[in-house]
């Protein structure tokens, strides 16, 4: 018996909650930079472009990949942290560290954070809702 095991479909719900929380936090981090921007129209256009790139080209593919991996688990109950694989945890650690370092050492200008963070955060949050939708579909199968 695995300690902290959950039914595998709950991994989709956990992943969705984690992605939505992460997306919210990234948007929250970028909001003050967005708020003080003098070129709001351009910043929002940039955020929309970042959203589309990350949502369509990266995160949507990851949702599908992780959903397939979770559905393919042979066990009905698995450890709750297996909603991601090792590679994904490493990528998350690198992205978080990179974001913190960029802001702490002012590697990128404020206008970059003003459009990049809201776009990235909304893409993360949106894909989190896709995980939750997959969980609901899984429950109804």
Q: What can you tell me about this protein's structure?
A:
The protein has 141 residues and is mainly alpha-helical. It has one domain. The chain has four helices and two strands; from the N terminus they run βααβαα. A two-stranded antiparallel sheet has the order 1-2. The longest helix has 32 residues, at 40-71. The radius of gyration is 17 Å and the shape is elongated. The mean pLDDT is 95.
Can you tag this structure with a few keywords?
141 residues, mainly alpha
List the helices and strands and how they pair.
Blueprint: E1 5-7, H1 8-35, H2 40-71, E2 77-79, H3 86-104, H4 110-140
Antiparallel strand pairs: 1-2
Helix pairs in contact: 1-2, 1-4, 2-4
Short précis:
With 141 residues, this protein is mainly α.
What is the share of helical residues?
over 70%
Note the gap between the termini.
26 Å
Calculate Rg over CA atoms: 17 Å
The tally of helices reads: 4
Major sheet: arrangement of strands: 1-2
Main sheet characteristics: 2 strands, antiparallel
The global form is elongated
Low-pLDDT segments, ≥5 res: none
Backbone structural class: mainly alpha
**How many domains make up the 3D coordinates?**
1
Q: Average pLDDT value?
A: 95
Q: List SSEs in N-to-C order.
A: EHHEHH
| % residues in beta strands | under 5%
**Number of β-strand runs:** 2
